[in-house]
Amino acid sequence: MINALTGDFMSDKKYINDKVFDIAENSVRGGLFLFVGNIFSTVITAFTSILIARFLGAIGYGLYSIALVAPSLLFIFIDLGVNSALIKYCAEFKTKKRNKHIASIIKSGFLYKTTLSFVFFLILFCFSDWFATYALRRPDIAFLVRIVSVLIILQVVFNTARNIFVGLDKMEYSATASVLQAIVKLVIALALIFLGFGVLGAIIGHIAGYLVAGLISLLLVYNLYRNFRSKNADTRFSADLKLMIKYGFPLYFSGLLMAFLSQFQMLSLAWFVSDFDIGNFRAASNFLSLITIVVIPVSTALFPAFSKFNFEKEKEEIERFFHYSLKYVLLLLTPVALLVGIASRNLVFLVYGTDFISASSYITLLTITYFYGGISMVINSFLNGIGRTNITLRVNVVNFLTSFPLIYILTMLHGVLGLITSIIISSLAALIYASTIITKKFNIKFNYPDISKIYLTTFLSGSIAFLFHHFISLSYLTELILISAIFTISYLVLVPLLGAINKRDIEVFRSIFSKFKLIAPFTNILLNFESWLLNHANKTT
């Protein structure tokens, strides 16, 4: 075993086509930058949210959350798909070395987005009293709505810059911007709360984070823009905008539906649920950031990766990449989701205290969506990458039509639990529809044996951890550490023994991660351990 763990295995590319390998390597590189940045920013943001919630209490935290609904609701009407188009065309033009087109599309994208965001900022600023009274049903927070209206402009600048970074393979810039935003919010929000500004201080800190990070991101984008622009380049604003909207509008409309549902969820909670329960729901949602540490970097990296294939000419390669993506996403996502669900009570009571007594049950239910969310993520990245955004729109329409009536009815009847149930039902309906489409229309078949082994491994590992959690009573922190350790060790042992990964997978991982000198020694030890277990399992059978 020791020799196996310390041995030096040569990278073996025979398992994968060169282009698939190169794209996978670039995706992992970008994903790792985003993953590290996401860990830091998510941890800082979660820590900030936890402290804000503890200092403001459930009612104050509920008001803080409701006030931020206002700019978020108008923010969704700005994009028209330009963000997604910026990722696609920056990546595509860079591959084709069309530098002047990169410069043009960056300039056009920013000009359009900032102009429209300013218009919506004025609308919310001028009509904040009406919005607070009739949309939020809380006229006493009109002054907070007026203050948060500036977030429309700041978030547009911040998010547009980050999409450009992703398209140009500058994931490290995107990660840095996220971390900076989280740090500034932490420092300023908590300082103002300590000074006695309460909910207002938390909101100002939130705004300050986007202001500082947005300005830095804008400077970085301008520096990239200067490298691509040409002195004799023509202005292509109309052509660029038409190109971006033609590609991105189906995605925008899809996002619009989903964003509207997200805001409608908060509005339904505001109508039918107390501030106390809203605070518990938001606290539960914050813990799901532990799962998005895995989700966001992977989904962000997969989108431009699929865009680099020509579906008509490279069907075999793109199908192989689809299978790899789906398998590895599920290997990462499902265990994280189940672990968060099992440890929800410890997480809530340890971090928030007993004032948020309902949050743990909300977390457990919400994690259900992540068990199959990895499949939806890969399907969406595939469809968007090959340019079939019209199908993505249809999938989200199914989600919307299923979810919209359920949100209102179930929230009215069963409060937060009803809302979460509506989310689970509608997302499952959309997944079933999307899976049917890609199977019949694109002839992409799911590898059900591999998927089943991953779920079996995850739930067996979770069962071991759950039994320990159920029968042993220790302090919240001690239980959390032991549950996490037992689950992780069980998962790493069972993954090769139950056949959830094979020799090919281990060599693919080894080939990809060998390029990253900082983490290669650690991944080699882990992969050697998995390889030893796999060989031992094969010998016993």
What does the model show?
Residues 1-17 have low confidence and may be disordered. Helix 2 (18-67) packs antiparallel against helix 10 (198-228), helix 8 runs antiparallel to helix 9 (171-194) and helix 14 packs antiparallel against helix 17. The two termini are 18 Å apart. By secondary structure, this protein is mostly helical. The protein is globular and about 75 Å long. The chain has 22 helices and no strands.
Secondary-structure-based class equals mainly alpha
Characterize the biggest β-sheet. none
Q: How many separate helices?
A: 22
How many strands in all?
A: 0
Determine the strand fraction and express it as a percent band.
Answer: under 5%
Mean pLDDT: 80
Question: Which residues form runs of ≥5 with pLDDT under 50?
Answer: 1-17
Computed CA radius of gyration, to the nearest angstrom: 24 Å
Principal-axis shape equals globular
Amino-to-carboxy terminus distance: 18 Å
SSE arrangement, N to C: HHHHHHHHHHHHHHHHHHHHHH
Q: What is the percent of helical residues?
A: over 70%
